[in-house]
Write a structure and sequence with these properties.
Distance between the termini: 15 Å
Number of helices: 11
Helix content: 10-25%
Strand order of the largest sheet: 9-15-10-11-12-13-14
Strand content: 15-25%
Radius of gyration: 25 Å
Shape: globular
């Protein structure tokens, strides 16, 4: 720390006292990096363990869908780890990261942040609720790093007739073990990665029936195709990689417009569908051949064969024979039905839908799982109730702004700006700043902030 501080001072930079909120992956690496730069750092978290969402939202058999090559930090690799580690092993990894870089001494566990206020001199007053204390204490810090994550407050829709529903409704944040589905008629609302995990768990653990529903569709691609091949995130990071692109190409997304065509053509040749990889149902509403947008890919694809099998049974014999290879062992799990539409109302044990094709359908269920995500919520920046006013039956509500759009970042303060260089600009000339690969870092405002 002393050598880092001396180095900081030699560059004319000011050492700062920084409070890091959150002890998940981003909180740990932020604190470690700031300390390396010579700053005085403290971490606060209301949890009793490190790990954040990966610790408190974990469920049985949950695994990371990003590979170890992108997930594990470059300064603390684990070559012997599985390509996609379990959530339990990832939390152990974060504990080891904390110990390896000796971060434990700067951490205060079980300490909640009640409020953050910016003072006239640019510093921050932070109100903390410490363990065992009935009062809150205030501390002053030069800077605050918000690393509390976006998966804290569940987004819970409210549906017409919900008060008279005879089944059980739970949010995916409280789900832990698939045994709760045994013998039950299960409906999973939402087709993100957690929704896919839960749908697969229900279909392979004795549920009486399993239905999933989506409003806008999805794009399903496996996180890993085969053990001997690179994982999907490494393929995406390198597919169509190019040395330079013009501002026009970046603005219109030409790279994605071009590569998406080849990707979807590959899906069609290999799996008989362009919706996603072996995805015969649930087409994303804006997945068209003329657009070039980037789509969020659902990489938790174990339940995709269970969703596609029913559609394949209605296809011609040669399609079934040719493309059923990707479904694996047909004895694993039961077929999952998919409803594409919005919930109209709940009545008794029935959930009624208005389908995207203009019709109506319903399904009788015993358990409804809301895999509907989380609210973007920072209660220490935006005081008020977690359940903000809902906008209709979907329960969207109004999310908090990200911290960078709040007072916690002062637009008048200097910061580093990243600028993409044209090949003709490259060469590391001092006028260009410090070149790092394709990117140059320009110092803005006449001061150096580390």
């Amino acid at each position: 720390y002393r050598s880092s501080l001396a180095n900081l001072q030699s560059k004319g930079c000011r050492a700062m006292r920084v409070l890091v909120i959150g002890a998940g992956a981003s909180g740990l690496v932020t604190a470690k990096t700031l300390r390396e730069r010579g700053h005085e750092v403290n971490i606060v978290t209301d949890a009793d363990k490190v790990g954040g969402t990966f610790e408190n939202k974990a469920y049985k058999d949950a695994r990371m869908v990003s590979s170890k090559f992108l997930t594990l930090f470059s300064d603390f690799r684990k070559p012997d780890a599985e390509v996609h580690v379990s959530l339990r092993d990832y939390v152990i990894y974060l504990e080891e990261y904390k110990s390896h870089f000796q971060l434990g001494g700067m951490m205060r566990m079980g300490t909640g942040v009640l409020n953050v206020k910016r003072k006239d001199d640019g510093s921050y007053t932070v109100a903390l609720q410490c363990p065992g204390e009935t009062f809150f204490r205030e501390e002053t810090w030069d800077a605050v790093a918000v690393c509390s994550g976006l998966h804290n407050i569940p987004r819970i829709p409210v549906f017409l007739g919900q008060e008279g529903f005879k089944g059980k409704i739970l949010h995916s944040s409280t789900y832990k073990d698939p045994e709760i589905f045994r013998g039950q008629r299960v409906l999973v609302i939402g087709t993100g990665e957690t929704g896919f995990d839960i749908g697969y768990a229900a279909a392979t653990h004795g549920a009486s029936s399993v239905t999933m529903s989506t409003r806008h569709g999805f794009v399903s691609v496996p996180a890993h195709f085969k053990p001997e091949l690179p994982p999907l995130d490494c393929i995406i990071m390198n597919f169509g990689t190019h040395y330079w692109e013009s501002d026009w190409a970046a603005r219109v997304g030409f790279h994605w417009w071009l590569t998406t065509k080849f990707t979807r053509l590959g899906f069609l040749i290999m799996t008989g569908t362009t919706y996603g990889f072996n995805q015969w149902v649930g087409k994303r509403y804006n997945m068209t051949w003329d657009e070039g947008r980037k789509h969020i890919v659902n990489k938790s694809s174990k339940c995709m064969p269970l969703l596609s099998r029913k559609a394949k049974k209605q296809a011609s014999w040669w399609q079934r024979k040719l493309y059923s290879y990707w479904d694996g062992d047909v004895s694993v799990g039961q077929d999952i039905d998919l409803i594409e539409g919005s919930i109209a109302k709940l009545e008794g044990n029935a959930v009624h839908y208005n389908t995207n094709k203009g019709g109506q359908t319903s399904v009788d269920v015993d358990v409804v799982v809301l895999a509907t995500g989380y609210r973007q919520r920072f209660p220490f920046l935006f005081p008020g109730p977690d359940e903000k006013p809902a906008e209709g039956a979907e329960g969207r509500g109004v999310d908090d702004l990200l911290p960078e759009e709040h007072f916690i970042v002062n637009p008048e303060e200097p910061r580093q700006r990243l600028h993409r260089l044209h090949p003709a600009e490259r060469g590391g000339h001092p006028a260009h700043g410090r070149t790092t690969g394709h990117v140059v870092v320009r110092e803005v405002g006449g001061k150096a902030y580390m």
